[in-house]
Fold:
Amino acid sequence: MNASTTRTTGSRQARNLRWLLDNLVDEVPGILSVAVVSSDGLLLLSSDPKLNEAAGEAAERAAESAAAEPGPSADGGEDPPGRAAPPVRKESGQGGPKGSSADLATIVSGLGSLTLGASKLMDGGEIRQTMIAMEEGSLFVMSISDGSLLGVHATPDCDMSVIAYHMALFVGRAGHVLTPELRNELRTSMELDQ
Structure:
């Protein structure tokens, strides 16, 4: 698996935030995927080894395929007879594997809006955390001080209190460094990674 180049570059704050996120995934049992989403719903930071591995494998296959197959004819006509058809891509959702950080970011953003609306209707005050226990997994969403959200997808047998505790630690450490400049840098680096 090739590591992303933007993981090891960027400002000190960005590298520290990536390290905190990687540490959360590596040290807390049961976490499958983590996403930090901006207040406007854009993915700022993710830690999804399956997505990174799949993206690396897809890039390698595309490079091998392009090198092995001839291109269209120089006169703009049809490809030569006998050329293999391009592989059919199996869709699992739009634009990525099911359960990827991009999917998680979409869900986290939607849940953030939903719980904010519920809180306003019920005069419930500030949202601290949302937890969803499903048959095949768990989902946690926690607010970060600047309006960003931390989302965690975990296994169904995870210890919810341990995950909530470590998420609170992450939020406490990351909340004060998520400046507008850092959010812009993280957003740009996510675009480069894709």
In short: The helical segments are 12-27, 49-68, 101-121, 160-174, 180-193. The mean pLDDT is 76.
